[in-house]
Amino acid sequence: MFISSTRSTALKILRILWPLPITLIGLMLATVIRATGGRMEKHGIAWEAFAGAASTTLWLMNPWANIHAITLGHIVIARDAATAEQVRSHEHVHVQQYERWGFIFPIAYVIASAVALCKGGDAYRDNVFEIDAGIKKTD
After folding, report:
1. CA distance 2 to 100
2. Strand ranges, E, within the chain
3. Per residue in 80-96, pLDDT tens?
4. Which of 13, 59, 88, 109 has the greatest number of beta carbons closer than 10 A?
């Protein structure tokens, strides 16, 4: 029983530490959002930051895309509370992907987008990580 409990605890700690560098970036952005009147709430396996400067933050990350939310390790940044609630299950799959892939997940994500483009698909909708998170693949 003790070995099983110790192993379980070690795995939980590893799931937090492995994506920690990216989580810290998300935490810095969440702090800015919070300082500008936004909110932070814990939901399941992630902290969500929304409102305040969240929309501006998301726009600055990619002005060419209409980003509603993004996951950075264990931090989800969403435009507002309604958006956070709407995308929660999708973004929590990305948190689990960060727990699996760790700080190399952003690199794997970009590679998956490039593969989708090379196959004539869409960089977002045909990305295997997005499909895993429930986005419908383009036909």
Report:
1. 25
2. 39-43, 46-50, 69-72, 75-78
3. 999 999 999 999 999 99
4. 109
d(CA 21, CA 117): 28
Contact 91, 69 (CB under 8 A): yes
For strands 46-50 and 39-43, give the pairing: antiparallel
78: β partners:
50, 69
Distance of alpha carbon 128 from alpha carbon 32, whole angstroms: 31
Amino acid at 129: F
Q: CB burial class (10 A; 0-12, 13-18, 19+) of residue 130?
A: buried
Residue with token string 């952003």: 106
Average pLDDT of the chain, as a whole number? 93
pTM: 0.89
Please tell me the total number of residues recorded for the chain in this structure.
139
